[in-house]
């Protein structure tokens, strides 16, 4: 019974999170614009396809930035940080949604090249640029010196908890050095 209640709570949280996503609102707005078709004037198909090209460029830049960051993290730090990059970041959702948005813009441009399609394409491009900026800003914020320490500490605690069931002994012994390193990183005393 407790598992059922917990699953429903998790499902409700995911539903609420998806409703707060700009991508959900984008789908609703674009669907409403295409269904109502308020702007019926013909638009050059090339204009809408140019916006699709811009979207593809945004996807490429976002994915390229993440790939360079992943390479840097795997060369300089432990592999756990690369796992954090892949599991705890918003960039995957952003890149996938941008790819889907690109396909939608191309399909709409080929289906009916009118101003409603152009408005949807501009809306998709705007949300895509905003979400890419947010995802890249999140990545840069996650991997500052304090963030690196916090991610490695959290991963070590997860591994110890999985192995022993509790981490209090190891946490107590290492807390002093963690506090010292965190304080030094906060001041910027790296290597000076």
- Terminal residue distance: 57 Å
Mean pLDDT: 76
Proportion in helices: over 70%
Number of strands: 0
Element order, helices and strands? HHHHHHHH
Beta-strand fraction estimate = under 5%
What is the approximate shape? elongated
Task: Write down the Rg.
Answer: 22 Å
Q: Compute the number of helices.
A: 8
Strand-pairing-aware structural class: mainly alpha
Instruction: Report the uncertain regions.
Output: none
Give the number of domains: 2
- Characterize the main sheet: none
General description of the model:
By secondary structure, this protein is mostly helical. It folds into two domains: 20-143, no CATH class; 144-192, no CATH class. It contains eight helices and no strands. 20% of the residues are buried.
């Amino acid at each position: 019974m407790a598992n059922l209640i917990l699953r429903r709570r998790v499902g409700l949280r995911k539903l609420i999170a998806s409703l707060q996503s700009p991508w959900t609102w984008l789908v609703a707005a674009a669907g409403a614009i295409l269904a109502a078709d308020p702007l019926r004037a013909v638009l050059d198909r090339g204009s809408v396809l140019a916006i699709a090209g811009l979207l593809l460029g945004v996807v490429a830049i976002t994915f390229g930035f993440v790939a360079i960051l992943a390479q840097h993290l795997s060369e300089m730090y432990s592999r756990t940080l690369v796992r954090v990059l892949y599991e705890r970041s918003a960039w995957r959702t952003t890149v996938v949604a941008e790819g889907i948005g690109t396909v939608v813009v191309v399909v709409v441009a080929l289906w009916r090249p009118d101003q409603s399609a152009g408005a949807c394409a501009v809306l998709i491009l705007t949300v895509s640029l905003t979400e890419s900026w947010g995802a890249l800003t999140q990545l840069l914020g996650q991997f500052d010196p304090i963030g690196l320490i916090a991610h490695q500490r959290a991963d070590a605690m997860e591994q110890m908890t999985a192995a022993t069931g509790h981490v209090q002994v190891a946490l107590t012994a290492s807390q002093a050095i963690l506090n010292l390193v965190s304080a030094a990183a906060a001041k910027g005393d790296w290597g000076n």
